[in-house]
Write a structure and sequence with these properties.
Elements (H helix, E strand, L loop, with lengths): L7 E6 L2 H9 L8 E4 L7 E4 L1 H4 L9 H7 L4 E3 L3 H18 L3 E5 L2 E5 L9 H16 L3 E6 L2 H11 L4 E3 L5 H5 L12 H9 L5 H6 L2 H8 L1 H10 L15 E12 L2 H21 L2 E12 L4 E11 L2 H15 L6 E9 L2 E2 L12 H16 L14 E4 L2 E4 L10 E7 L4 E6 L1
Parallel strand pairs: 2-4, 7-8
Antiparallel strand pairs: 1-6, 1-7, 2-3, 5-6, 9-12, 10-11, 10-12, 10-13, 14-15, 16-17
Helix pairs in contact: 4-5, 10-11, 12-13
């Protein structure tokens, strides 16, 4: 098997949230720690290796986690603090690495191809890891190999707080004996299906004809087969804090209708937040833009903890707009931008005691994916009017606050929208 002539590093902070909490409180070192919602309805966002020994893992209901490890210290978590330390690590990497990609709040990919000509790839990565540990106090592991997939798997084998290099000629011997769950992208359902076929190791999976894997797993089957064979040509995408998603609207007639402007900003934020979630991204910066009738343009931005939740983004958008709009002149344009994007899903906000919010977003996005992005939206983002749904009148909520819950009542085939109300 021929591999591309690349040298890729995968850096992953070990039990990141727990490690940050241990920096704040050294008494937690060596003890089982669980980060997540504090109530029985909460969910585990992260846990220490000491807690994992009892079977605790991320995304597990808190009630189940505590039944497995009753002596664990449970901490709700602080995304602002975790975001701060994530940026500290990124700053160290940015100061050293020629090309790096921030894949999530706690992991990075680096392309250091050609480094062997100067200092040696392993030595350079070892020194970078030591610098991160020295400057942040956080444990971190790395994998070094020919592509993203092999490097990420190598990092998993190096944990906790370790290093592993997989040279080009040892890729297959390294991958072959590992269980298929080690392949990035192989979830529980895929793993169970492959197990039912008698496929338990990467070696067995790699020997199956790709056509058969595609027949069983669909389009994703080829990608999984390639990873099992150590094939991954995906590039390290150069990271930039300016990476963003935005929208803006210019009015045919300049306006000073504040209620209409705020409704529009809510709707715009909701729309681009959904686009961001589809791409499995999280934002850490919100920018609001206004342009007055005389073409004077002003922006205001705010850094926030990484999130993709509408209700957090909307409230910050309205806060920025109300601070920004001071001149009481007619407005020609408004816009919203979500920036500082990184890869990730909203598991980062599982510190909430109530899991209803997670389920709400999953349900709303499922409706949008099936019927279109405009199929369901918050009542505060539309104009005030009476709607008939299932024989009753539903009045839209136009208060200045952003409602958190929205319930679909009826699918309107003509307008291709769900009629809904807030509660």
């Amino acid at each position: 098997m021929n591999f591309q002539n690349n040298t890729i590093v995968h850096l992953d902070l070990d039990t990141f949230f727990v490690s940050v909490e241990r920096l704040m409180n050294s008494a937690l070192i060596g003890k089982p720690v669980i980060i997540g919602g504090l109530s029985d309805r909460g969910v585990v966002a992260s846990c220490s290796y000491e807690a994992r020994k009892y079977g605790v893992h991320s995304a597990m209901p808190m009630r189940m986690a505590l039944s497995l490890c009753g002596d664990a210290t449970v901490i709700r978590g602080d995304m602002d603090r975790y975001s701060k330390y994530s940026r500290l690590v990124t700053d160290v990497i940015a100061d050293c690495a020629p090309v790096y990609e921030k894949a999530s709040i706690d992991e990075h990919y680096l392309d250091i191809s050609g480094m062997d000509r100067f200092i040696g790839s392993y030595k350079w990565t070892h020194e970078l890891r030591n610098r991160i540990i020295s400057e942040t106090g956080l444990p971190i592991s790395f994998g070094l190999s020919v592509n993203k997939t092999v490097s990420k798997i190598a990092t998993g084998e190096a944990k906790p707080n370790g290093e592993k290099e997989v040279p080009r000629d040892l890729v297959r011997p390294f991958l072959n004996p590992l269980p298929i769950k080690k392949i990035p992208g192989v979830g529980d359902k895929t793993r169970q299906l492959l197990h039912s076929m008698g496929v338990f190791t990467i070696h067995t999976l790699s020997d199956i004809p790709p056509e058969m894997i595609q027949h069983v797993l669909g389009k994703s089957g080829i990608d999984i087969w390639k990873k099992a064979n150590g094939i991954d040509f995906s590039p390290v995408v150069r990271y930039s804090e300016e990476k963003s998603i935005s929208t803006e609207q210019t009015f045919e007639t300049d306006t000073i209708d504040i209620q209409m402007l705020e409704r529009l900003l809510i709707h715009m934020t909701e729309k681009i937040a959904f686009k961001m979630r589809k791409k499995q991204k999280l934002a850490s910066v919100i920018t609001v833009k206004i342009r007055y009738a005389n073409y004077d343009t002003h922006t205001l931005q705010k850094k926030i903890a990484y999130t993709s939740f509408d209700h957090i983004l909307m409230s910050t958008t309205l806060e920025l707009f109300r601070r920004l709009y001071e001149r009481r002149m007619l407005i020609r344009l408004v816009g919203v931008k979500l920036g500082g994007l990184i890869g990730g899903v909203q598991q980062l906000d599982l510190f909430d005691n109530n899991d209803k919010m997670i389920k709400l977003y999953l349900s709303m996005d499922k409706i949008r994916m099936r019927f279109g992005s405009e199929a369901i939206h918050r009542a505060s983002g539309v104009e005030k009017k009476e709607k008939q749904a299932e024989g009753r009148s539903v009045k839209k909520d136009n208060s200045r606050s952003v409602p958190l819950f929205i319930t679909p009542i009826n699918w309107n085939k003509n307008q291709k929208q769900f009629e809904c109300f807030c509660r």
